[in-house]
Amino acid sequence: MAEDSSAFLRGARILPTPITGRETVAELVDNAFLAYNAGRLRDGCRLYTDRMLADSSTVGMSLTGAMTPAGLGMSTLIPLIEAGFVDWIVSTGANLYHDAHFGLGLAMHRGSPFADDVELRDHGVVRIYDIFFDYKVLLSTDLFVREVSARPEFQRPMSTAEYHYLLGGYVKEREKVLGLKGKSVLAVAHECGVPVYTSSPGDSSIGMNVAEQALAGSQLRFDVSADVNETAAIVLEAKRKGESAILIVGGGSPKNFVLQTEPQIQEVLGIDSRGHDYFLQITDARPDTGGLSGATPGEAVSWGKVDPDKLPDAVVCYTDSTIALPVLAAYSLARRKPRKLKRLYDRRGELMKQLEAAYKEARATRDARAVAARD
Predict the structure, then answer these.
(1) Which positions of the chain have pLDDT values less than 50?
(2) For the domain 14-367, what is the CATH superfamily, name and number?
């Protein structure tokens, strides 16, 4: 005789209403995204909107893949930033470099992924899958980066957040001259006080141009230790005053960088913490090939990256970021009112003092225990 099955049948019945063509994106997600990765995307939309965007939560985003060349900076990231739905960012340098094209009024075009690349090269056209642009776009952006980075305020070591803030200010000014607005993530992040970090600052055309200037005597240097400590300071305060939420778009180095903040706090600095509270990842990678090593929610718990008590709330959506991210943005903007900007960039000094004080306290406690153990 079969045992009682009611424990397994508590989920809502699958009874969607027919699609009419008049649905909003949010209504479509709630009604028709019921199973498989559509179901996971629906779970992710609800987690992000209902919990991660609580006023007490601080949201960090990692960004990989060629998102800004495809226009997602303007269509998706900027609306999220301006609504207060993203409080700090770790991005590939490439996304920030290509983002600058739009703020400088340079054109990106839709093309074909099946074009002849030799022919494109002969005509001075660069291809990012099905995105085409003139090679001169790279040269113009390179020149802008070099001219700005040579200015006096850049001639010192700084975190990548400070560099991107200063650079974003100049992109914003160029937008004004060109009569543009809301074209560049860097410019909007500057305006909204959202710190933008790059976990591998040498791995992009921005880093390449800064390296060229170093050969010419520039004093600009990226302080990677400042990046590690500043991001840890952001998460420490988030945990002590509320919740820390992480939105992972893609994978790569930025994915690990947003997550390693908790091991930095716990393992390295010795400060008591339990990991991030909310974890939402959009990815097309797989754990069994190493593409998600250490970054599935369960594995992240074992590293101390995610609070084990919050593991049931974690969502991984295995799909294309260019599909899921606009859907997530449309859903959250429809279902939740804008939040007050946290302006974490403006508070970096204050946050670092809090981290330093907590570190000194933890170290003193550890040293006292070591002395007691020897005695």
Answers:
(1) 1
(2) Deoxyhypusine synthase (3.40.910.10)
Segment 348-352 long-range contacts (CB within 8 Å, at least 24 positions apart): 348/159, 348/161, 348/162, 348/195, 348/230, 348/233, 351/230, 351/233, 351/234, 351/236, 351/237, 352/229, 352/230, 352/233
Q: Using an 8 Å Cβ cutoff, are 94 and 66 in contact? A: yes
CA atoms 41, 45, 51, 57: torsion sign: positive
Q: What does the radius of gyration of the chain's CA atoms come to, in whole angstroms? A: 22
Taking the C-alpha atoms of residue 88 and residue 58, their distance in angstroms, rounded to an integer, is 8
> Nearest to residue 207, comparing CAs of 173, 164, 248, 254?
164
The pTM of the whole model exceeds 0.85:
yes
Burial of 200 (0-12, 13-18, 19+ CB in 10 A): middle
SS (H, E, C) 331-355: HHHHHCCCCCCCCHHHHHHHHHHHH
Active site residue 353: no
Q: Provide the residue type at 191 as one letter.
A: E
Given 172, 305, 310, 342, which residue is catalytic? Answer: 305
Predicted local distance difference test score (pLDDT) of residue 293: 67
Q: Residue 80's pLDDT is what?
A: 98
* CA dihedral over 243, 247, 251, 253, signed as positive or negative: negative
Q: Tally Cβ neighbours within 10 Å of residue 292.
A: 20
